[in-house]
Automatic annotation (TrEMBL):
The keyword Ribosomal protein applies. It comes from the Bacteria. Binds together with bS18 to 16S ribosomal RNA. One of its GO terms (molecular function) is structural constituent of ribosome. It comes from Salinispira pacifica. Coiled coil: none annotated. This is Small ribosomal subunit protein bS6. The gene is rpsF. Belongs to the bacterial ribosomal protein bS6 family. NCBIfam families: S6.
Length: 93
């Protein structure tokens, strides 16, 4: 198991944020993520528009996962409508 971090940028509306957050969390659990921690970074103004949005809600998930499953995260969530961006990185152990 390795430690990973998934930085997510969601649409700023609270309803859309909560629904998408739950969807991403569900995918992480389905792929076998353990020790999931969430770091809410609140709503921020974007430097440029993403899909017509000027503000977005930032959230970082920190978790442990098998490397074979980690590469599947982006493939599983890339079509979520209210998730604007996601970046999954491996952390130093």
């Amino acid at each position: 198991m390795r430690t990973y971090e998934a930085a997510c940028v969601f649409k700023a509306e609270e309803e859309k944020y909560q629904a998408s957050r739950e969807e991403v969390l569900k995918v992480l659990k389905e792929l076998g993520a353990e020790s999931i921690k969430e770091h809410d970074m609140a709503v921020r103004t974007l430097a440029y528009q993403i899909e017509g949005e000027l503000q977005a809600h930032y959230l970082v998930f920190e978790f442990k996962m098998d490397p074979a499953s980690a590469h599947q995260i982006e493939d599983r969530v890339k079509y979520f409508d209210d998730l604007l961006r996601i970046l999954v990185t491996r952390q130093d152990d």
